[in-house]
């Protein structure tokens, strides 16, 4: 995948939480949801993980959530 910011080739990988839930929260703290693309059993054993792409050049990470 090419980075939409700089055009550099992105590296596929995962962001991992170590034993805790990983959540998105808006700036006001009123909207929140869990980020996880692993099966529920795996997340309970290993922590949440969400697949994404990292650009080494411009230091951005892109993730998709469901």
Write the layout of secondary structure elements.
Layout: E1 11-16, E2 23-25, E3 32-34, H1 40-46, E4 49-55, E5 60-63
Antiparallel strand pairs: 1-4, 2-3, 4-5
Describe this structure in words.
By secondary structure, the protein is mostly beta strands. It has one helix spanning 40-46, and strands spanning 11-16, 23-25, 32-34, 49-55, 60-63. The strands form two sheets. A three-stranded antiparallel β-sheet has the order 1-4-5, with no helix packed on it. Strands 2-3 form a two-stranded antiparallel sheet. A hairpin with a 6-residue loop joins strand 2 and strand 3. It is globular, with a radius of gyration of 13 Å. It starts with 10 loop residues before the first strand and ends with a strand. 8% of the residues are buried.
Could you write a compact summary of the structure shown?
By secondary structure, the chain is mainly β. It is built from 1 helix and 5 strands, in the order E-E-E-H-E-E.
């Amino acid at each position: 995948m090419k980075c939409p910011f700089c055009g550099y080739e992105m590296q596929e990988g995962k962001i991992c939480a170590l034993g805790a839930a990983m959540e998105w929260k808006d700036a006001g703290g009123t909207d929140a949801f869990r980020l996880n693309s692993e099966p529920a059993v795996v997340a309970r054993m290993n922590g949440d993980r969400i697949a994404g792409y990292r650009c080494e050049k411009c230091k951005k990470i892109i993730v998709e959530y469901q």
